[in-house]
Structure prediction request, 400 residues.
Amino acid sequence: MLKFLTAGESHGKSLTAIVEGAPSGLPISPAGIDADLARRQGGYGRGGRMKIETDGVEITAGVRHGLTLGSPIALIIRNRDWENWADVMSPTPSPGYDESRAVTKPRPGHADLSGGLKYDHRDLRNVLERSSARETAARVAAGAVARRLLDEFGIKVYSWVTGIGGVEWQRRGNAPFDKIFDGAEASVVRCPDKKASREMVAAIDRAKKAGDSLGGVFEVVVAGVPPGLGSHVQWDRKLDGSLARALMSIQAIKGVEVGTGFGAGATPGSRVHDEIFYGRKADAAKGSYWPAPGGFFRKTNNAGGIEGGMSNGESIVLRAVMKPIPTLYKPLKSVDIATKEPFKASIERSDVCAVPAAAIVAESAVAFEVAREFLIKFGGDSVKEIERNYRGYLGQIARY
Ligand code: EPS
Prediction:
């Protein structure tokens, strides 16, 4: 079973990800992972921290001469900012450390107060260091391994921003995903539409000036997924359930849609469900992987590629909403946990908008879940064994 864990505090020495269950024979390079880490660091509206960090991964286990061994893969990303925090974040008692530097002012919208109450911490730094979205760098590193696996089988994961602070753009028509993606990559807010991008940048500028922050919506699309990932037979095997959980677990995500999503509540069934067609007989041997030419297909994809908790062979389409970052320059009312006195929470450094970065994190989270389900279905201990299993299945559906 493919799984990963992360460890690391925002201003601690480093972030660590351990990926277990990756097959042997998968080509992995630090440069490949770094490319995704760099994408996560970008986006208009990031704060001062991103000027300090240049995230790069060190692979310390599970890879030899560029290929995975099948053993756990350990990935380390150093926090450059750690040097400014060495005494505050020291794992051993720090003799000169001034206890009065404890954080006692919980910020509304953050994990601070709930985490303090739950873990009985009187210094809220013990909560905020780990709840920080800095952790997503480790998730992107783990996701990059999953992405490499999907690459081997022609499965691609894309994302683009569709809304920031009320400025919205909607994907229409049948433009190829590669093209939309290139447009997103060329935009500072990762929105493929130039006009909407400019308006989003202006909205971020306005929010920054007002000491405020902005959230938004992004879309993640997975192309090349064969039918049959996930299962209808048990609640915890449903693909949409796993994907929604993976997305919801990203810091600041407040909602997820699959396909038409909430729009389906206002549309009659006759216009929601994707009709089924059948083309000429598919020839599994000819197609590289999925989609195979011919066979069953749909002309619409309102289901977002998932029916009954299983992939149906169409592209998987997901959207998620990120709330505005709660660390605000504009003060919000809160109560000091030590004195119980009211105060107004404000800060010196934060991102104004991190929606473009969240979209990259979401690509990684989705890639990991799809790779996990792919291995559940076609699992083998080496890439070659998985390929045999996958080809056998594609042959089976071609003959169906
Ligand atoms: C974050 C606060 C900011 C962000 C950080 C997430 O960091 P700092 O408090 O050090 O200025 O820049 O994001 C990252 C460091 C990152 O790599 O994405 C928070 O509180 O979530």
In short: Residues 212 and 328 are 6 Å apart (CA to CA). Residues 3-398 form a domain with the Chorismate synthase, AroC fold fold (CATH 3.60.150.10). The mean pLDDT is 95.
